[in-house]
Amino acid sequence: MIDRGAAAGALPAAVEAAVRAGVDWVQVRERALGGARLLAFAGEIAAAARRGAENAGRTVRIVVNRRADVALAIGADGVHLGYDAMDVAAARRVLGEDALVGLSTHSPEEVRAAAGAMDVPSYVHLAPVFAPLSKRAERAPLGLAALEAAACESVPVFAQGGVDAANIAAMRAAGAAGVAVTGAILLADDVAAATTALRSALG
Question: What is the tens place of the pLDDT at every residue in 80-101?
Answer without folding.
Answer: 999 778 999 999 999 999 999 9
